[in-house]
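[job 4471] stage=fold_predict status=RUNNING
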Amino acid sequence: MTCNDVRQHWMLYLDSEGDPELHFHISDHLGMCPECAEWFARQERFERLVTEHLRDGPADEELWSRVLRRGGLVQGRLAGRRQWLVWGRGRALAAIGLAAAVVTLLVVLRSTPQSAAANDLTRLTVDCHERHLRGLSSVEFLSQDDRAITRYLRQHVSFPVNEPPKEKGFSVQGAGVCHWARTPVAYMAGRVQEEPVSIFVLARDSLDTFSHMRDRLLEEGGRYRCRERNYQMVSAMTPENVVVVVGSAAPGTLEQLLNAYVGSPTEVR
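[job 4471] inference complete, writing structure tokens
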């Protein structure tokens, strides 16, 4: 995708809406294009700040009318949780137009640290898991042999990788290495209780790239649980790794897999 293509779909991406393949292509582009990554971060920052400040007071009809008139806009339809605006000529204007108008008229935005949504590890892991699940991309190394999987990953990444947690019912089916924001990520694809589950492993120092996940892990004491789209996700930070387990299984089941994986590594011969 070109930069223009990616930026046209920024609202779908930040809302986790639309086709999973579109999300994958956008994530891939953002990982290789610092300019677009910064652009996406600015858009999310605008939206977040405008939302926060509008919560401080009622966004009544008179306020919206003034904003729209000053911006040369007319009120359009609602799409999801975002306000869409339409030019008099009939062209859809992205929600950033509204954000900019509100910022200009109300002067309420304050300087805040740049968001790292464009490199959000939760979205990247879900995109990868879903692409494999839907057959939109193939797993690099197909094998049900735990030791073969571990050997393969250790040959392709420089950070520690443990064996699949089969003692908790994880049946591995393959593995591979992908790169997000030029950061190597090892993954294991498998099943537990007939539910597809993926385990992603990164070097701990990669959290400097994925600051969104870093902040969540630090806030939660090294463990973080969330739901992204239709999937549950649990994450942990160890002295050497960041581990993310994603799937449709119950959160408690994913927690057990995570706990088993981050235990003492098993020697592989």
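[job 4471] summary: Confidence is low (pLDDT under 50) at residues 75-96, 101-118, 265-269.
[job 4471] exit 0
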